[in-house]
Amino acid sequence: MILIKYKLVCEISVAGESLGYISDKEKFEQSIEGIINKQEENKLYTTIAQMPEYKVTFVNKIETTKDEEILAKIEESSETTYKLYAVTIDGKQKELLTNLEEAENLVKSLTQKYAKTIKPKIGVTQVLTTDNQKGVTTIKTAKANLTKQLDAKEKAVKAKEEEATRNSYTSSSSNTSSSTSKTTTKVASLNGVTLSVTPVSGVITSRFGNRESIRSYGHTGLDIGAPKGTKIKAAASGTVIFAGTSGGYGKVVKISHGSGIKTYYAHCSKLYVKEGQKVNAGDVIAAVGSTGNSTGNHLHFEVIKNGVELNPQNYLYK
Ligand SMILES: [Zn+2]
């Protein structure tokens, strides 16, 4: 008769501390499995800080069991990690999204939109968080925010470019219309680079943009006729980026002056500088010749800004 006073229960303890009794161990364990395996959007995993320990025991019948209460406590101690997707610009996280495909499509469309202007480095990166609400935006908001930022960047770049162009043409524009005018001694600058030395003195035999039977395209430089062996001087200081033979140019020296400005000296008979060499304005770099696609001794002189040939007479041989 003694046994009637007692019942079989299960004592739950976490980290050595008793939380109380439960009546149904199997159901309780299933519930904990349920917490861990609960399906949630973007969920990566759920952890429970410390798993409960079970001890089957007899207790007085008047002891109450509290399965639900204990389970709630354990659920409270659980932590769920979510996987979200951040759109990045230049490696910096900008907008947080829940859907990878949407994030990737947005990156694709933004990359295309600005491909011709600012060429932004946009990407998607995985972000793990225990709070899947914090900072998350809708695809619509993300698109609007990123477009705003990139538009501002594009505007700033354009303004800077326009300013640079204005600066580089301010001094030359007054001369282009009247090449015979010698009233100004102001030297034109290109992105802050000044071409201050005339490479060779001689007769201009072909101007920039000329079309001749020898070529079907516009002339990319200025030809100055001079005797073979005439010293060619660097128009500005810079670094020799090429000194050798190159197709129609024949023997050619290419100098980079920084800020996207280069000058080329072609058809030379001799080269006096080497690739990587630093030169000052006025340094002798080569001698006039007729190598490559050339019909007589002359210097073919090119001025290049950001990969585009400009008329050298905007700067020299005015
Ligand atoms: Zn030429």
Describe the structure.
The protein is built from 4 helices and 20 strands. With 318 residues, the protein is an alpha+beta fold. It folds into 3 domains: 75 residues, no CATH class; 68 residues, no CATH class; 126 residues, Glucose Permease (Domain IIA) (Distorted Sandwich). A hairpin with a 2-residue loop joins β19 and β20. About 5% of the residues have low confidence. Bound molecules: zinc ion (ZN). The site of zinc ion has 5 residues, from loops.
CATH class categorisation of the largest domain = Mainly Beta
Number of helices: 4
Q: In the CATH scheme, what's the topology name of the largest domain?
A: Glucose Permease (Domain IIA)
Helix content: 10-25%
Summarize it:
The protein is an alpha+beta fold and 318 residues long. It has helices spanning 25-37, 67-76, 100-113, 139-176, and strands at residues 6-14, 17-22, 43-48, 53-60, 78-89, 92-97, 122-129, 189-190, 193-194, 203-206, 222-225, 231-233, 238-245, 251-258, 261-268, 270-271, 278-279, 284-287, 298-305, 308-310. The chain is built from 4 helices and 20 strands.
